[in-house]
């Protein structure tokens, strides 16, 4: 979750989007970490979790995502 917190801060500090971070984990290892990119990409679907899924799909075939865990965090300030 620490990486998700870092990503949430990156989203707000960079003006990319709301304070959301997401990580995808497999076998205890972080595969990808992302943050909300709605403002930066001017894409209302670029939420942290959607961005993370898009990024991991670039590196991992869809059929290989069965044992991944998606963690999403909202940073309340």
Automatic annotation (TrEMBL):
It comes from the Eukaryota. Residues 1-77 form the CMP/dCMP-type deaminase domain. GO terms for biological process: purine nucleoside catabolic process. SUPFAM superfamilies: Cytidine deaminase-like. GO terms for molecular function: guanosine deaminase activity. Signal peptide: none annotated. Gene3D superfamilies: Cytidine Deaminase, domain 2. This is CMP/dCMP-type deaminase domain-containing protein. The gene is gb12819.
